[in-house]
Design brief:
The protein is built from five helices and five strands; from the N terminus they run E-H-E-H-E-H-E-H-E-H. With 164 residues, the protein is an alpha/beta fold. Helix 1 packs parallel to helix 5 (153-161). It is globular, with a radius of gyration of 15 Å. Bound molecules: magnesium ion and zinc ion (ZN). The site of zinc ion (ZN) has 5 residues, from loops.
Length: 164
């Protein structure tokens, strides 16, 4: 089986700006995130991004806008040697479309677990919102709540060292 670290996007990978990020101009990588991903990958963890993008359902931005920002995220990280294994996103918003994938529901994590044969017991989810942790717990993965836009390199080191 594989082990994985699930990462929320906004606030963890890129700067949380207090609004939807659907434009590459608003997408700024958080300072140490490439190092975080590299460290975890070197230690054998798959890196899987799990992100709520309810602005799509609300019509604030399109699937194509999301795809463009997503591609930008992957290429900016890759330039720094950080490879993401997969990105799962929920385009729904409960005001418009009810679904089972939006965090705190665990379906995005469950899909990844099934597809990548992930060992829940040895996997983690890092997020900046209680719903990230809830989704993780519902999937049987350890949830780690951090401040938005914080340096999570120490958290990654604790995962690698088995001290969290
Ligand atoms: Mg977030
Ligand atoms: Zn959904």
């Amino acid at each position: 089986m594989n082990k994985a670290v699930f990462l929320d996007r906004d606030g963890i990978i890129n700067r949380e700006i207090g609004d939807y990020v659907y434009n590459v101009d608003d997408f700024v990588l958080n300072e140490t995130i490439a190092d975080v991903i590299k460290l975890l990958k070197e230690s054998g963890y798959l890196i899987i991004v799990v992100t709520n993008q309810g602005g799509i359902s609300k019509g604030i931005f399109s699937m194509a806008d999301f795809a463009e920002v997503n591609g930008y995220m992957l290429s900016e990280l890759e330039k720094k040697g950080a490879i993401v294994d997969e990105v799962y996103f929920c385009p729904h918003h409960p005001d418009v479309t009810k679904c089972l994938c939006r965090k705190p529901d665990p379906l995005m994590i469950e899909k990844a677990i099934a597809r990548f044969d992930i060992d829940r017991e040895n996997s983690y989810m890092i997020g900046d919102a209680p719903r990230d942790v809830l989704a993780a717990e519902r999937a049987g993965v350890k949830g780690i709540l951090v401040e938005a836009n914080s340096n999570i390199l120490d958290v990654a080191k604790m995962i690698v060292n088995g001290t969290i």
